[in-house]
Amino acid sequence: MHIPDHLVYAQTHEWVKLEDDGTLTIGITDFGQEQLGPLVYVDMPAVGKVLARGAESGIVESNKTASDLHAPVDGEVVAVNELLVETPDAINGAPYEQWIFKLKPAAPFSAEGFLDAAGYLKLIS
């Protein structure tokens, strides 16, 4: 299973990438999408919505189950991946390339409280 080293991971199976402009790009991990199976629906937060760390920020659904997405930090949603409305299963083929939403964090991002690739691998093993 592929777990990129340049990302950090939440225990709820979201990956987080800190962008050069300070925003965060969020998606679900390879393990997370594998557990769900082929995705049929992605419910994303609205642009402009303010989220609290750990709050439900959306849902990913497959034919067999659904899973909540969680906000990794406090912040405002600045973009959503509209392509996933029509092709949610694109996440299954490229989970680290298919981001779900982007956040402008309320405070400078710290990776404290997140897992690195080795820590995430230990979590899912």
What does this protein structure show overall?
There is one protein chain. With 125 residues, the protein is of the alpha+beta class. It has one domain: RNA polymerase II/Efflux pump adaptor protein, barrel-sandwich hybrid domain (OB fold (Dihydrolipoamide Acetyltransferase, E2P), Beta Barrel), CATH 2.40.50.100. It has a six-stranded antiparallel sheet with strand order 1-2-3-9-8-5. Strands 4-6-7 form a three-stranded antiparallel sheet. A hairpin with a 5-residue loop joins strand 2 and strand 3. The longest helix is centred in the last third of the chain and has 8 residues. The chain is globular, with a radius of gyration of 13 Å. The protein starts with 7 loop residues before the first strand and ends with a helix. The relative contact order is 0.27. The mean pLDDT is 96.
Structural key phrases:
OB fold (Dihydrolipoamide Acetyltransferase, E2P), 4 helices, lipoyl, 125 residues, 9 strands, 3-stranded antiparallel β-sheet, alpha+beta, 6-stranded antiparallel β-sheet, Single_hybrid_motif
Strand order of the largest sheet: 1-2-3-9-8-5
Radius of gyration of CA atoms, rounded to a whole number = 13 Å
Please, how many domains? 1
- CATH H-level name... which superfamily? RNA polymerase II/Efflux pump adaptor protein, barrel-sandwich hybrid domain
Number of strands: 9
CATH top level class name: Mainly Beta
What series of H and E elements makes up the topology? EEEHEEEEEHHEH
- CATH architectural designation: Beta Barrel
Helix content: 10-25%
Which shape, going by the Cα principal axes?
globular
CATH topology: OB fold (Dihydrolipoamide Acetyltransferase, E2P)
Average pLDDT taken over every residue: 96
Helix-and-strand structural type? alpha+beta
Family: Belongs to the GcvH family.
Pfam family, one: GCV_H
Protein name: Glycine cleavage system H protein
Domain Lipoyl-binding: 23-104
